[in-house]
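The material for today's practical consists of a large collection of protein records. Getting from the letters to the tokens is the skill we practise here. To make this concrete, we reproduce a full record directly below:
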Amino acid sequence: MDAFAQASDLSVDGKLYDTDKNLINAHGAGMLYHDGIYYLFGEIKKGTTWRVANQSWEDYRVPAGGISCYSSKDLKNWRYEGVALAPVKGDPKSDIDTGKVIERPKVIYNTKTKQFVMWMHIDAKDYSYSQSGVAVSKTPAGPYHYIKSVKPNGQMSRDMTLFKDDDGKAYLIYSSEQNNTMQVCLLSDDYLHPTKTYSRILINRRREAPALFKNNGKYYLITSDCTGWSANAATYAIADKVLGPYKEYGNPCKGLRANTTFESQSTYVLPLKEKNTYLFMADHWNKTDLEKSDYLWLPLKVENGKVEIINDAKK
């Protein structure tokens, strides 16, 4: 399936370039594998960074640039596919206006409806809106048609990810209740609506940046602490069922700078061909110049139920 020899060949610690030698601009990214091709979706960070006034945390922003898409057959050579979801300009009432927040896009394919479904965090610049937005496309790279945003079961939804299980059911996982909990919500069969089946997990743990994957029938959830744009130590949690309950363990990172997740924040975990091996994807945030943020991709191993992310870098 993959043209690389081993997971370490895919390691990235810094900038990523596409096949036209332009910088890849895809932050808070997710990955879709479809018909032998990997599709990378991420936030477009472009323009002058400013700090939102009257916030209790370092709320740095750039204009919402929409969602980009890149494709690859080997996870190393990335072709720019264009803007998958374009923002709207000059319409403050629109969820995807450039003055809003469009973050952490994730895409899955619905085999029944033959639609590619994108969910993302939609918010106001001060995080007071706290909703999940959904868009659809007939083709993996888009363009995607934005439908709406919702508060799942009336709950806040901030940092989020998507997970499609082996049985075809899909789940939205998001920080909620002012980031004091996370929630896992089953989506409808067409993946376009939250259902009333949901659970509260990691209660009073203040976790964000969720990345969920499955190994040997168990569910693994990597999250970060809530420290704004500043890096912190990741933790992981394990459950027998996707809705939980989850038992939280320590930091999966090993090596120099492990206590700051190697100066990064989690966004996605991609299963690889090699058994029990995954690609851990994260962002190096440059909070005062978000356009200069780059990436960390590292091998992730699961051995005897324990997660390890190892960075062999010496700096």
In short: Residues 51 and 60 are 4 Å apart (CA to CA). The chain has a mean pLDDT of 96. The chain is about 0% helix and 50% strand.
